[in-house]
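Quick one, T. Sequence first:
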Amino acid sequence: MSRSYKRSFAVTTALLPTWIAVIVIYVGTMLWSIRLSFTDSTLFPSSNYVGLSQYAKLFATPKWWAALQNVAIFGVLYVLGCLVVGFLLAAALDRKIRFESVFRTIFLYPYAMSFVVTGLIWQWMMNPTFGIQASVRAFGWQDFSFDWVVNPNLAIYAVVIAGIWQGAGLVMVIALAGMRGIETEQWRAAQIDGVPACRIYLSIILPQLGPALAAAGMLLALGVIKTYDLIVAMTNGGPGYATEVPAKFIMDSLFQRQNLGLATAGATVLVLTVIAVVAPFRYAVHMRARRREGA
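Structure tokens:
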């Protein structure tokens, strides 16, 4: 038996428990959940199959459509906002400012916090009774209004602000690492030609950060699909259905309404959504790697 074969066998044996856990725990429970979505399960699992009736009920529920609309609005604004703000922060820190490590820690710190803490902080700050609105009015601006968190038309945008505040630090770190890996000769050549710094970042630096920003965007997008704790801590889905999201709809169906079949139907739709988001990105990365190998 060759040494390479022994090493491969040892590695495979060491990873065997992990593969078993993935197959049994993750894949197994996912398939079991999909199976339950075709039954009339309520508080306890049932073997009484009802076909696609749970999915028909799901998409006939106005609250589910409101949740889909809200997560789409939140997802687009959250991902784009984090990418823009994170890139701008990285560009500012890349200028070799004083106390860079301090600012980098400050900007990254919100990402280390849980979404529950973030939601509670911003829920307090946007509360019209004792938050920013009350503080500004205490200084004499009685007409100032910042009641987004209780406004049905603006509540989802309040959640977006809180999400960007937390997620922009991740993009900043990834973008800053990419900027520091770019050759300094490009900077010198552009500066000799008299190109402004903002034009250098937009026309030279930004295109080279495409893969890094795409990876950051993918991480943020996956977080959007499973958004739950930020919504619960900040608005609890209200006012009305203004900030309802699919993950909260699923949890409410499972624990409050004891409708296991409807909850697993919603979870199955979310799984398919994750696959639809991840699969094109993974395919693009795979094709890019193959082109590099072919070159």
